[in-house]
Amino acid sequence: MTVAKPRTPASGGELTEDEKVSLFKQLAATDPADPRRETLRTALVTEYLSVAEHIARRFSGRGEAYDDLVQVARVGLINAVDRFEPERGSDFLSFAVPTIMGEVRRHFRDASWSVRVPRRLKELHLQIGQVSGELGQRLGRAPTPTEIARALDLTVDEVSEGLQAGNAYYAISVDKPAGEESESASLADTLGEEDNGLQSVENHEALQPLLRDLPERERTILMLRFFGNMTQTQIAKRVGISQMHVSRLLAQTLQHLREKLTDEP
């Protein structure tokens, strides 16, 4: 196979869209052992470095050095370039941005688990996040817990347990804004009143059966919002409904959980 020598710009933004598509196709068709693959890979990574830097900047000011975040974001970018499948017809940025953000979030998760969690659950939580992204690209929507379980050869309960392990790096999930803006009402506010049951989300024994009994769509939306760190707009795109519908379902589901937890003896 003949591989055209790619231009290797010193900074991003110098390749045309057609050139980028061509490079991705060449990269996908090049054997991993072929030395030309590294040249193609370097050209693409260099082209999108500004995207990684932009994402790192979004996460700065949270106790981690910006330069360290840039390095982590670049690792995510490299992973995105390596894993992107141009034959699927999707835009690279729509795949790369969540991949890079996922890498940065994993960095924070690994560094800031607020309570002690077994290593098995930490690894399971990260596996679920990775598989969810891959299934989401393939399906064009958010995967259900059942689909995630099937992909990982787990039970739905095990997937639920892995997702709930994410509570350990949210110091308290109910204090997180429930809307799109940082000034919006928190989960606790959405529930309508202070609720000690939901403020102790770490109480898996009480919460797990309630989550398991939810309809699959409502459970998926809840998991993506509070355990998957996705905005309502992102969830709407994943699930295939409007953001307003997501907001309404979240409110109804949270009210249901609050009532159930309040009824617990």
From TrEMBL:
Residues 44-113, 127-189, 210-259 form the RNA polymerase sigma-70 region domain. Pfam families: Sigma70_r2, Sigma70_r3, Sigma70_r4. GO terms for biological process: DNA-templated transcription initiation. InterPro entries: RNA_pol_sigma-70_dom (IPR014284), RNA_pol_sigma-B/F/G (IPR014322), RNA_pol_sigma70 (IPR000943), RNA_pol_sigma70_r2 (IPR007627), RNA_pol_sigma70_r3 (IPR007624), RNA_pol_sigma70_r4 (IPR007630), RNA_pol_sigma_r2 (IPR013325), RNA_pol_sigma_r3/r4-like (IPR013324). CDD domains: Sigma70_r4. It comes from the Bacteria. The keyword RNA-binding does not apply. Keywords: DNA-binding, Sigma factor, Transcription, Transcription regulation. GO terms for molecular function: DNA binding; sigma factor activity. Coiled coil: none annotated. Gene3D superfamilies: 1.20.120.1810, Winged helix-like DNA-binding domain superfamily/Winged helix DNA-binding domain. This is RNA polymerase sigma factor. It comes from Amycolatopsis bartoniae. The gene is sigB.
